[in-house]
Amino acid sequence: MIGAMRVAVIDIGSNTARLLVADVDGTLEPVREERTYLGLAADILRHGSVSPPKLDDAATVAGRYARLAERLDADDVAAVVTAPGRQGRASAELVAALTKAVGQPVSVLSAVEEGRFAFLGATARLEADGGIVAVCDVGGGSTELAVGTVLLGPAWVRSADIGSLRLTRLCLNADRAGKKAVDRARQVVERELDQFDAPQVDLALAVGGSARAAGKIAGRDLDRDDLEDVVRLASRTPAAKLARVFGFDAARAETVLAGAIILSAVAERLGVTFRLGRGGLREGIALTLAGESAARAA
């Protein structure tokens, strides 16, 4: 790719750490992607902060990703931490450990920044005249909903401190969740999503691991009935069987139910069918990073 800029994004999230290395030249072409399960949100819920062993795990993974980005000749690297950098008593310790491991400052994304980057990454391949678009990103520790247009970007962004891993640990920590546990989870989600009074939209995209998991079960187009089907299946099926049948890893299988409950609640508010988005947070950061680097070089 002549004229392309190679960038890398190290993303430390509530469920997983991920690396994206991509060539950007107007469009984004992934070169290498990596993911490692960390489960930081569960640690924060259990201890009120990220425990020392988890700090070491996160730093080790972040350092490995930084070295891999260097070996792949990334021109610029962005390292970010999402909800774990905003939640818990020792978030500053987490950021310090990651910064030392990566060898450069690590940015704590605000909830609004997280929503905006997810919107940019999810809508990058859409036509400019596609109307009003909503992008929902259900992470492990938080959920973001951004609404806007391809040309002007997101104009309305909301975030809630509830995600698939966080909801699982709060309400659904059993292999088969009964009706009472599911009902309690729905009540928690309704309370947390109280501010998700989104404008009317023409298209809704769902991004992130929870959306991809629901898509493996019910397909790329997910209306509320489809998501409720996922809720019913996941509430009655042991996580190990979900993993075996649908090809999830063990950690993702445990949070499929919670993710579907959250997505179903958002779909009801939007009143439209979700389509699985191609790209999200990391792609949005990569595109922004490449644009900023090109502007500095001009």
What are its keywords?
single chain, 298 residues, alpha/beta, Nucleotidyltransferase, domain 5, 2 domains, six-stranded mixed sheet, five-stranded mixed sheet, 11 helices, globular
Structural account:
The protein is of the alpha/beta class and 298 residues long. It has two domains: 5-110, ATPase, nucleotide binding domain (Nucleotidyltransferase, domain 5, 2-Layer Sandwich); 126-276, Nucleotidyltransferase, domain 5 (2-Layer Sandwich). Helices cover 48% and strands 23% of the residues. The chain has eleven helices and eleven strands. The protein has a six-stranded mixed sheet, sandwiched between helices. Helix 6 crosses helix 10, helix 7 packs across helix 10 (250-270) and helix 8 (224-236) packs antiparallel against helix 10. The protein is globular and about 55 Å long. The two termini are 19 Å apart. The mean pLDDT is 92.
Describe the SSE topology:
Blueprint: E1 5-12, E2 16-25, E3 27-37, H1 40-47, H2 52-71, E4 76-81, H3 91-102, E5 107-108, H4 111-123, E6 133-138, E7 143-149, E8 153-160, H5 164-171, H6 179-192, E9 203-207, H7 209-218, E10 221-222, H8 224-236, H9 239-246, H10 250-270, E11 274-276, H11 281-297
Parallel strand pairs: 1-4, 4-5, 6-9, 9-11
Antiparallel strand pairs: 1-2, 2-3, 6-7, 7-8, 10-11
